[in-house]
Amino acid sequence: MQQTANKRFRFIPYRKHDIVEMCLQEGRLCGQEERFRQVHGILDSIFHFEFHRIIEALKDTYAPIDPDSDTRSCGIDTPQSKEDFTRLLGELLNKANYERVSEAELNQALKESSLFKIRLHVDFDDFSEALIFSRGESVQTETIKSCFGLFSKTIEFINYERVVVYIRFKQDDATRVITSATCRPGSTLLRLFQNVPKADLEMLFPNTQVRMRTQDKLLIGVPAVISGGLVLSTKLGTSLLLLASLVGFWLGMSSEPVALDKTALLALFAGFAALGGYLWKQFSNFKNRKLRFMQTLTQNLYFKNLDNNAGVFHRLANDAEEEECKEAILAYYFLLVSEQPLSIQELDQRIEDWLANKWDCAVDFEIDDALNKLREFGLVDESEEKFSAISLDLAIQKLDQRWDDYFLPSLNA
To answer: What does the H/E/C string look like for 94-131?
Structure first.
């Protein structure tokens, strides 16, 4: 499978500790490497502490709708529990550099042919909310075999590296597909998947139905018609003649009575038994082929699923924490090693060029978000819309003071 970048996204595909070492590898911080690592270490701790607050807020708002909860409700409402979980989740996904899959993109995906040679159908009327977010989009190629492996062709498709699905079922008890406790009216589902082809987004929904494609119907129907003709002309021939004679006599179309002896009854029974066996065989062929499709769908979902429900936003918080830290340390480093103050555009261009040219990584760097964090922590000086970084020693002092200030309210209480 060959993979090529499709377009630039905000996600930086390196670990935060790797970003630090990538910066230090340039050798532009001679003698200050450990202090730079210390700045990163304190920044990392600050982001971890702040995202712990976000996780707690999400836990409070998710508790009333958590399908996996094993705790009881005390019945006491708190200000946090009245927050909107969907809004908080959207904010977290944005910090983790996920992109919302628009309704137009989803409709286009539903129209495209599945890579797994199955036809899927989703009834969106079952949901009161259905949100999809993706991160990391690429164009990949896959060799598809057909005609029992005799022929093959190479196709291109869009692949999402990460996909988050949030679904809330309608409160209506008459919803057609609700068949389990996890899909009861008003319940929610939160799922995280990896490596999902855009054309197969519909397989991520809990009410996905497998349907036969035209070629699958032909594979079953054509042999069924041919074998049906053989059954009629051989095993059912005698029975049909006998049955036609009986009907003709009963309707007065023939005056000659038909003798129903033991041999005739056995022939009639054998004929109908053959017809029943043939019909059952065709029905079994249809069911078995559909079961194979369901197995294909289940196997793909098994290997693509990364996390479920509350576990999803814990993982997303970790991803968002990584992204925030990477953005801040990159912006601080490039301002620190610059010989002169830089404008927003200049800083953004330097970081994107460095990632693209040195690390073959096309990224739409979130410069505004990165600078806002540096401003908040007091790590930059701004003059005439240009920015410069404060020294490493002063940065360590400011970050250390911010860390200490987190715990002052509890000490004064």
So the answer is: HHCCCEECCHHHHHHHHHCCCCCCCEEECCHHHEEEEE
From residue 311, give the alpha-carbon distance in Å to each of 66, 249, 331: 11, 74, 31
Nearest to 86 by CA among 130, 56, 135, 50: 130
Prediction pTM value: 0.72
Residue 10 in contact with residue 97, Cβ under 8 Å? Answer: yes
Q: What is the pLDDT of residue 174?
A: 47
Which residue numbers in the chain have pLDDT < 50? 1-2, 4-6, 174-175, 177, 181, 411-413
Contact present, 44 and 325 (Cβ < 8 Å): yes
Q: What are the residues facing 152 on neighbouring strands?
A: 145
**What b/e sequence results for 280-306 when a residue is b if at least 16 CB atoms lie within 10 Å of its CB, and e otherwise?**
eebeeebeebeeebeebbeebbeebee
Residue 411: what pLDDT?
45
Q: Angle at Cα 316 formed by Cα 313 and Cα 322, nearest 5°?
A: 145
Model pLDDT, residue 206: 82
Round to whole Å and give the CA distance between 43 and 49. Answer: 10
Q: Tokens for 337, please give them.
A: 């090693």
What's the confidence (pLDDT) of residue 290? 63
Amino acid of residue 345: Q
From the number of C-beta atoms within 10 Å of its C-beta (0-12, 13-18, 19+), residue 35 rates as middle
Sequence-distant (6+) residues with CB within 8 A of 68 are 308, 309, 310
Return the closest-CA partner of residue 196 out of 155, 159, 165: 159
Amino acid letter, residue 333: Y
